[in-house]
Specification:
single chain, 699 residues, alpha/beta, OB fold (Dihydrolipoamide Acetyltransferase, E2P), Rossmann fold, 22 strands, globular, binds adenosine-5'-diphosphate, binds magnesium ion
């Protein structure tokens, strides 16, 4: 890296230790390099200078040029403020300061020409501007940021200490206009030429201080491509390495386990989508290359039975299989589902979770090492190093987004050859996001629900209609159905969550009294055994209503439950609403989802609720979710940490994502180790990039 860029930020003129501390803490800016990687969040066009007489109520931020006079303090105590008059020959505008009065008084000069910038507001029929930004015209002459000015994020605390957007702008300018500032190109020439990209140094100059809007667009384009290109290069290199260099387990046989199950035990006809996916997987696992596949399928699409059948393929080839779930409840359900699907087939399945007793644990360890145990189901407990398989051939990871890439990788070490990995997720992932997050995986999609499923009827009701909703619940219970009532997790406070849940529980009990009705309650504070007890009561149909927090979100399967009431639905994200709704509609009955909310709704909340009532298509919902929240906030991706994008936007830049992926592929196909001369600069950069935990923070 250019040594100049490694200079600690406190050595920048005008920064010093106190401001440096703030920059480090609030923006993670430690050196000059970090500073120039701190891109502006937007620019304002200051090339236009307005006249006072042009001001009207419709204008947002504008810039004016003129002189300031008639400064005076008005009002007393807290209401006191400093006012002044601004003249530009076309009229007079009042300027107002409530804060920083001392500085203004001491620094403003009567005969100087200023550029002022701010938002005019109308007051008693005339216009004023509160806290205008002031620039001495002489100071600014010949500086690029006079024209199109970058705006930088800064915290309130930073502003209060004088490190505002403008201060950051000046710092960046100082670094970028220093003759020692250099940035080596990191994209091969042929790609630069092909897409007519700006070179790297120019892109950095223009992203901060664009000459014009066209150049700004070009700079953004190039930097977004760069960011996406290196992500793809990393993922694809990983994938090519896996498929070309590492040997995989060959699952060639289809034998007794699979055939017996398919012919005699499978309780239903597979959907076409399930069949297709099984074929894709089969083709993948028999070629002697490690499979790394993402299996996407909406809630209820029947992923579990597919998983089981793939495990049976492993068993047929004398390998063991394991299945990991993110929670204890889910692991238990999977275990029970597998056991009941396998009935009396000679397949030995065990469950290993955090609450497995030591004695059982020991037995599992023995059976696992001897090979007597065929399938191990469990939670994170499975990937601990002390869990040793005789011959693990396949690992199924359910709801992977809670596992993270790291943990997935630990599975590899469970055998001499890395076992095949099938990752299942019910959170549909839009294509562009999948390409970026799971670009090293192949994808299979179950895009069809088992026949006979009726779409879940979804409505939105305001709290005022609660009585009708209760009436509806009664009706459904009389018909023999069961009901979920879910309360949001209040993130800031476990206490509040618990209180709203208990309040809800009490009013439900009043509405639905014993002995006619029985109500269960499950929440995160319960001991696992108690939670399980309550869940089981509901599963067995002994209680008709399950009041719960989102602990029931993932995977829980009670086919007789046909009503899902979501309280304060406006507080849930779309993917979570979709997951919750997926808890019903699993049996033959018409199912319902009722989204309860107060009357005051933000626009986003309104769109979320509307989307839910309009579609049950998980992919459509995921697209809306991605647009609304951005990828960083999407369920699960936050933890995965691999999407710390600085400039590209997964929900918008899909064309660039495809281009970046194609180009990365071309580069690697010709030179997988990046040894050729044409890839020299790229390879230098890539080595640093790979080493760096925070992608992109290198040069
Ligand atoms: P998910 O994909 O959400 O994990 P599950 O595997 O839990 O879905 O399946 C949901 C329900 O659908 C289960 O009760 C399962 O037995 C049933 N099911 C799965 N495949 C089929 C099929 N082809 N025909 C009918 N029912 C099916
Ligand atoms: Mg499932």
């Amino acid at each position: 890296m250019n040594p100049f860029l490694q200079t600690p930020i406190e050595y920048l003129k005008g920064v010093g230790p106190a401001k440096a501390e703030l920059l480090k803490k609030d923006l993670e800016i430690f050196n000059f390099h970090d500073l120039i990687f701190n891109f502006p969040y937007r620019h304002i066009d200051r090339s236009r200078i307005y006249k006072v007489k042009e001001i009207d109520a419709s204008l947002a931020y504008i810039q004016l040029k003129g002189t300031i006079g008639n400064m005076r303090t008005i009002g007393e105590g807290r209401a006191s403020r400093l006012v002044a008059e601004f003249y530009d020959g076309s009229g007079v505008l009042e300027l107002v300061w409530f804060q920083g009065v001392k500085w203004v008084k001491e620094n403003l000069k009567a005969n100087k020409t200023y550029l002022i910038f701010g938002k005019p507001s109308e007051f008693n029929g005339s216009f004023n501007m509160v806290h205008p930004s002031l620039d001495d015209l002489e100071d600014l002459q010949n500086k690029r940021y006079l024209h199109i000015m970058p705006l930088y994020n800064c915290s309130e605390k930073m502003k209060a200490r004088g490190v505002d957007s403008k201060a950051i702008m000046k710092m960046v300018h100082a670094v970028i206009s220093d003759p020692r500032f250099e940035l080596a190109e990191n994209i091969p020439t042929q790609i630069l030429t092909k897409f007519n990209f700006l070179n790297r140094k120019d892109a950095f100059l223009q992203i901060h201080f664009p000459e014009n809007l066209d150049k700004l667009g070009k700079a953004e384009h190039r930097l977004k491509f760069e960011e996406l290109f290196f992500i793809q290069l990393r993922l694809l290199r990983y994938k090519m390495n896996r498929t070309q260099v590492v040997n995989g387990i060959r699952l060639e046989q289809i034998g007794d386990f699979f055939n017996t199950f398919y012919n005699s035990y499978l309780p239903f006809e597979l959907t076409n989508a399930q069949k297709r996916v099984l074929k894709e997987i089969r083709a993948d696992v028999k070629r002697g290359i490690q499979m790394n596949r993402l299996l996407q399928g909406d809630v209820g699409s029947g992923k579990t039975v597919v998983a089981l059948m793939v495990m049976l393929m492993a068993l047929d080839n004398n390998y063991q299989a394991c299945m990991m779930a993110p929670t204890e409840i889910l692991a238990q359900q999977h275990y029970q589902t597998l056991v009941s699907l396998l009935k009396d087939m000679p397949v030995k399945v065990a469950l290993l979770t955090g609450s497995t007793k030591t004695k059982e644990r020991r037995q599992i360890a023995i059976d696992l090492e001897s090979g007597d145990l065929h399938i191990l189901v469990g939670t994170h407990a499975l990937i601990e190093d002390k869990v040793v398989f005789k011959n693990l051939g396949l690992a199924i990871v359910d709801e992977q987004h809670r596992f993270g890439v790291e943990q997935r990788a630990r599975l590899w070490k469970k055998n001499t050859y890395p076992p095949h990995v099938l990752v299942m997720t019910a959170t549909p992932i839009p294509r562009t996001l999948a390409m970026t997050l799971y670009g090293d995986l192949d994808t299979s999609i179950i895009d069809e629900l088992p026949a006979g499923r009726k779409p879940i009827h979804t409505v939105h009701r305001f709290d005022a209609s609660r009585l009708q909703v209760y009436g509806f619940i009664q009706q459904q219970i009389t018909l023999g159905r069961q009901v979920y009532i879910v309360y949001p997790l209040i993130e800031e406070s476990e206490k509040l969550t618990y209180k709203s849940l208990v309040d809800g529980f009490e009013s439900i009990i009043k509405e639905f009294p014993a002995p006619k009705y029985a109500v269960s309650m499950v929440h995160g504070k319960l001991k696992p055994a108690d939670k399980d007890f309550e869940m089981q009561r509901f599963v067995r149909g002994e209680t008709q209503i399950m009041v719960a927090t989102t602990v029931i979100e993932v995977g829980v399967n009670v086919p007789n439950a046909s009503v899902m009431i979501i309280e304060s639905a406006e507080k849930f994200g779309l993917s979570q609403l979709h997951q919750l709704r997926g808890r019903v509609g699993r049996g033959a009955d018409q199912s319902y989802c009722i989204l309860m909310s107060g009357h005051e709704l933000s626009n986003d909340a309104r769109l979320r609720l509307k989307t839910m009532t309009e579609t049950t298509d998980g992919f459509k919902i995921a697209e809306v979710d991605l647009k609304l929240r951005g990828p960083g906030e999407l369920e699960g991706t936050a933890q995965s940490g691999s999407l710390d994008l600085k400039i590209a936007d997964i929900s918008e830049d899909y064309v660039l994502i495809e281009q970046a992926r194609n180009e990365a592929k071309l580069v690697l196909e010709n030179d997988i180790n990046l040894e050729k001369d044409v890839n020299k600069s790229l390879s230098l950069y890539f080595a640093l990039y790979q080493k760096n935990a925070k992608w992109g923070r290198i040069s």
